[in-house]
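Observation: inputs received (chain + fe (ii) ion).
Thought: call the complex predictor directly.
Action: predict_structure
Action Input:
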Amino acid sequence: MAARHTSVETKYYADRDRVLKKLRNCDRRTFLKLSAATMGAALAKGLMPPHTFQLVDVARAAVEKGWDSTGAQGSPPFRFAYISDAHLYERTLNQRFVRAIVKAVDDVNALDPQPDFVLYGGDLAQLGSPAQLEMGRQILSGLKAPVKMMVGEHDWFLDMGEKWQEMFGAPTYSFDWKGIHAVVLMSVYEKDFWTARKMTPEQRMQTVAGLDNAVQSRFEVGEQQREWLKNDLAKVPTTTPILIFSHSPLYKYYRNWNFWTEDADEVQAILKPYDKVTVIHAHTHQMLFNRIGNINFYGVLSTAWPWPYAPEGLPPLTVQMNRADPFDQFDGCGDGQFTARADGLVDTIYNLWDRNPVTVKADYLISHGSVDQPPAPQFASY
Ligand SMILES: [Fe+2]
Ligand SMILES: [Fe+2]
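Observation:
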């Protein structure tokens, strides 16, 4: 049965479809102009996407409950947004993923007030080509808020990160954000499986892009970067809240699909002395939360597709999102935001497209989190 929309929604979708039709044949410069124009027109007419309304409303409710940085009623949210895992192909091959990341840029640009920054979580390209990365860069340049970039394996293994770094700079860096020390890691290094096999760069990239094979090695942060992390954190008091961004989960979830970081235990040991640590990761394309010791982990949504949950290794804290309609491109995909609390931990809103947003508070992870606990009920419907 066709979805029923209100007149505002019908008008919004009609406008959006008209612009998307034009996008199919335009060059990149025109493409961005059109994308910005859709948003501008929607704003001017009060026709924001229905699901963006929900996102903003939830953010306001959060502030009223006082879990922003100061706890004061009505103070501006202290937050950042994210967009991740767009997996862009060249436009001639795939339009769907382009539409999805443009939708996410529109979502984030509609936030009022704007987030302090937008994390891009990696896998901007599908097969790491300059054309794919450049298209992604241009689309993300349409964001109003500053963007913090993270690299994914799909961006890296065609030319070992050369083009990505030329566009976005070093993949490992840290910054301080309103009392929180934040670190962006490159967590998808692999041991050399390609030289001995005489693989071309394309074969290497294709191999890494396939999750379920016996050829590639497992992702790792690597010794050199772990040393860098130790040195970076050495100057930070253990009472300072730490926020780590990594593309792969910094724990061992499911090895066969590379939902896994080989040296996760070593990285967790470096983070252990700190009172409050949050790790936000991409790559798994699903709502995913975990707590190990002092560390809260959140997986983020993809704009391109939702991965199924792995058949084993799922953290007990994770309540699985249910993809009810696989024929809806956007079902199970989305973007989201994180709000910092007075204690330095973060709460998150999963902005699942075509569903109600889902809020997960750090308290849930802290009060339920233990690797010794039996699995929680695994399915919820939205
Ligand atoms: Fe991905
Ligand atoms: Fe990935």
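Thought: report the result.
Final Answer: Residues 123, 152-154, 247, 283 surround fe (ii) ion (ligand 2) (CB under 6 Å). The domain at 75-368 is CATH 3.60.21.10 (Purple Acid Phosphatase; chain A, domain 2).
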